[in-house]
Task: inverse folding
């Protein structure tokens, strides 16, 4: 099973709202990722968790707060977002942590609109 | 940082045609993957290919790491092949950098 699930599929929120995106994998992967993708652009890495610890933060604004409660779950908490944060948010996982030799498997994404 | 350029940016084909997509990268890499993003946004991993040649059905890929490029071949294209094809390269510690993408449209 190479499935990564994400909820919700779509999310509309106001600039004062607090919401969370959820990602889950049951492949025993030790690395999990958040990417942001704007329309007609490639995905851009936001965060990497390796063995449940934050290993990469690509200078993401603090209004995005990642959390890895256990090895299967990854959350992205959203607070005081701006309209320019509207995008497709993709979660991915890969077998091992701390290396560059792994295939990444992506979830279907959450399409976020900030009003 | 490393630059990843893909060509062509857009490609329009009739069903049954063959095509070659190219990915050039500006520095040595130890991870290279090809993805297909369907019109609904789902990214599907096609190949993990930091070097050498692989084939999977109508798709095949070749990476020449010493010359810093990779090629994705699609034979006998089908309408379901439509979408955006990305190559992504890894340089260090789990970080993948995606290329600019090739948007493919296949018409019946």
Result:
């Amino acid at each position: 099973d190479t499935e990564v699930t994400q909820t919700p599929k779509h999310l509309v929120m106001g600039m004062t709202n607090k919401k969370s995106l959820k990602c889950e994998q049951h492949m025993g992967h030790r690395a999990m990722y958040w990417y942001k993708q704007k329309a007609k652009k490639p995905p851009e890495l936001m965060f990497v968790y390796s063995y449940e610890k934050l290993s990469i933060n690509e200078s993401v604004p603090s209004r995005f707060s990642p959390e890895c409660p256990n090895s299967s779950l990854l959350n992205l908490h959203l607070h005081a977002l701006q309209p320019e944060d509207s995008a497709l948010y993709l979660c991915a996982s890969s077998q091992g942590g701390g290396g560059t030799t792994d295939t990444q498997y992506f979830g279907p994404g959450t399409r976020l609109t900030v009003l | 940082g490393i630059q990843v350029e893909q060509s062509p940016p857009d490609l329009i084909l009739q069903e049954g045609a063959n095509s070659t997509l190219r990915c050039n990268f500006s520095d040595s890499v130890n991870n290279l993957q090809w993805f297909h993003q369907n019109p609904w946004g789902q990214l599907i991993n096609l190949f993990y290919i930091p070097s050498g040649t692989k084939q999977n059905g109508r798709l095949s890929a070749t990476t020449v790491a010493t010359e810093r490029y990779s090629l994705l071949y699609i034979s006998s294209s089908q309408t379901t092949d439509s979408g955006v094809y990305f190559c992504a390269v890894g340089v260090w510690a789990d970080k993948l950098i995606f290329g600019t993408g090739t948007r493919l449209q296949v018409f019946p």
About this structure: Residues 6 and 54 of chain A are 19 Å apart (CA to CA). Chain A touches chain B at residues 31, 33, 37, 42-45, 48, 50, 55-56, 88, 90, 92, 94, 97-106, 108-109, 111 (CB under 8 Å).
